[in-house]
Design brief:
Distance between the termini: 27 Å
Low-confidence stretches: 1-36, 126-146
Mean pLDDT: 82
InterPro entries: DUF3352 (IPR021787)
Number of domains: 2
Organism: Floridaenema evergladense BLCC-F167
Protein name: DUF3352 domain-containing protein
Largest sheet: 20 strands, antiparallel
Structural class: alpha+beta
Shape: elongated
Strand content: 25-35%
Number of helices: 21
Pfam family, one: DUF3352
């Protein structure tokens, strides 16, 4: 029974990540030279090179069973309902059963990709695909109406004889829909229209692959690629990128065509500027290996630049000290190797990313308005070392509770302490004179500390130096005594931190860590909503909470591989259920 429940989903789950969100969020990698290359996933030689994103996912039932053990009873129930809808839509509604019609001939992976929609001319004819270059050419002209993306799925055929026998039944009583036939470049294509908005096209290529597309245009483009057009398999740098993140345990692989996906994802309110387009076109792609482990899911990821890109990454993996300066009870931490360099790269990235939550101009303006200081000249200029921003609970809230009031602590290694002290003195004067904060100088563990207290708002800020060159600032709850002197038990000694933060990248350029289980889903959701300026409407917030509820903690480690590629590994530590959910009975359509 359990085997049947799991295997009946394998085909439909290949499309679930993309279809559920209507073509938006997650797609994965598929590459194979004509036709076999162990370094690349199946189907790469068939997917057009301008695919926005692509997915290759294992059909191994043991891995699917492992995946179904993660989460909470509530998240598993939602997961099962979504899969059941997809099963009914793609299999049951067409008279198919996975064990009978798919499993006998299916290979070890299924793959899917999203192709960019073509433009339409004023006469309604299709034109070339949307790319960053064509988008830039038409930036000042009226944008023509575009059609929806094509979803393409590639299923490798391990048993051609069984596949032929089964697939030939598509016009028989097995399927209630009417199929028609046509031919394109010598390849026979079968098509059916489900309703006014939904149709499917299928073709068998060289007895090795069954290709399914959500429209005839997608299947034609795959055949073009099969006959020699540029494919995902020969995308510049892709094979080399996969070799750097290779792992024989992988469950799925991800590829994102960064320039094409960025253009396709833009909205009318978030147009890419010419400078932004120029920046984004320096990028080539992002790839990730997804591995299922006993306590969660690991993502080994890499992004890289185009061969002709003028941009180069600075190789400076200098992070490592900050987790040693934070206490073991730290709820969240983000760190990096060089704040000055990080800010410069953030400014560049913000120009090419319309989704950047905090624009550099806004931050500069806010600092100037609040303090009179120039963000770049008076602050960032002396912050040329390692840094961290963290949430730390007070000792009074160290026990599990629903009411944690953490304080914020910012640490940065100064590259010019004399300039730092001068500008911090200016900031203190502004806080005292303009905002009437009371300034108190004190000692904490024989270290001088300056406290700034608002008599009306009750806000407290503290600042000082941990050693000769690490400045710290705290805000909110009184947590200065948690870091001065150095904590007796460091964050690096926390077992959750140690088991969540990926440790393979050494040296590295920083970490991200968040203890969602300890901080609570509501607090985490509120924090993420603020940081990413998410919509406050109830639906968005409920969806965010539902997505966070199965997660215990998240850890990220980043590193610059070379001057053209950067690595970042992610581990999502998940809650577990005793056994996977129960798939609802198929919703068989009436005859």
């Amino acid at each position: 029974m359990r085997k049947n429940k799991i295997s009946s989903l394998i085909l439909t789950l290949a499309v679930s990540a993309a279809i559920i969100n209507g073509g938006g969020a997650v797609y994965w990698v598929l590459t194979q030279e004509k036709y076999s290359n162990e370094d690349l996933p199946v189907g790469a030689a068939l997917i057009p090179q301008d695919a926005l994103m692509a997915l290759s996912v294992s059909t191994d039932e043991r891995q699917w069973q492992q995946l179904r053990e993660f989460g909470t009873p509530q998240s598993q129930a939602g997961f099962e309902q979504s899969l059941a809808k997809l099963r009914d839509r793609f299999l049951t509604a067409n008279g198919y059963n996975y064990q009978q019609h798919i499993q006998p001939w299916l290979g070890k992976q299924v793959t899917l990709a999203f192709l960019p929609p073509p433009k339409k001319t004023s006469e309604g004819k299709l034109t070339k695909q949307i790319t960053p270059a064509t988008q830039s050419e038409n930036a000042d002209s009226e944008v023509p109406e575009v059609e929806k993306q094509s979803v393409v799925m590639v299923l490798p055929i391990d048993n051609p004889i069984q596949a032929k026998q089964i697939l030939e039944q598509s016009q028989s009583s097995v399927n209630k829909n009417q199929w028609t036939e046509r031919e394109y470049q010598g390849v026979k294509i079968k098509e059916t229209k489900v309703n006014e908005d939904e149709s499917y096209s299928t073709a068998v290529l060289d007895t090795k692959f069954l290709v399914i597309s959500t429209d005839s245009r997608g299947i034609d483009r795959v055949i073009d690629t099969y006959n020699g057009a540029a494919s995902l398999a020969n995308t510049p740098g892709y094979k080399e990128a996969l070799q750097k993140i290779a792992d024989n345990r992988d469950f799925a692989k991800l590829y994102v065509n960064i320039p094409a996906a960025a253009v396709a994802a833009k909205t009318t309110q978030q147009q890419l500027s010419p400078q932004g387009l120029e920046q984004i076109q320096q990028q080539q792609g992002l790839a990730a290996n997804i591995i299922l482990e006993s306590q969660g899911i690991r993502f080994k990821s890499i992004s890289w630049l185009k061969p002709n890109s003028q941009r180069r990454y600075q190789i400076s993996n200098n992070a490592g000290e900050m987790p040693q300066l934070l206490p073991a009870n730290t709820l969240m931490m983000v760190s990096g190797g060089n704040l000055k360099q990080f800010w410069q790269e953030y400014v560049q990235g913000a120009e090419s990313n319309p989704m950047t939550p905090f624009k550099p101009k806004e931050l500069r303006s806010a600092v100037k308005s609040f303090s009179g200081l120039d963000l770049d000249r008076d602050l960032v200029s002396w912050m040329g070392g390692e840094f961290s921003l963290s949430l730390i609970p007070t000792k009074q809230s160290n026990t599990l509770s629903t009411n944690i009031e953490p304080g914020i602590v910012f640490m940065v290694k100064s590259s010019d302490r004399q300039t730092a002290e001068k500008n911090l003195a200016q900031l203190n004067a502004v806080m005292s004179n303009k905002y009437k904060f009371k300034t108190e100088k004190s000692q904490l563990a024989n270290q001088p500390v300056v406290n700034l207290i608002s008599p009306t708002l009750g806000v407290k800020m503290s600042q000082g130096w941990l050693n000769s060159n690490v400045a710290f600032f705290t805000l909110g709850a009184p947590i200065a005594n948690e870091i001065v002197p150095r904590p007796q038990k460091k964050l690096t000694e926390n077992e959750l931190f140690r088991s969540t933060i990926p440790s393979e990248l050494k040296p590295n350029n920083g970490h991200f860590f968040i203890n969602i289980e300890r901080m609570g889903v509501d607090t985490t959701a509120n924090l993420l909503s603020f940081l990413f300026r998410l919509s406050p409407d109830a639906t968005t917030q409920n969806n965010l909470r539902n997505q966070l509820s199965p997660i215990k903690a998240i850890g990220v480690t980043a590193a610059v591989s070379d001057d053209r590629s950067s690595r970042f590994d992610i581990f999502v530590k998940l809650k577990k259920v005793k056994e996977g959910g129960i798939l609802p009975v198929p919703n068989v359509p009436p005859k």
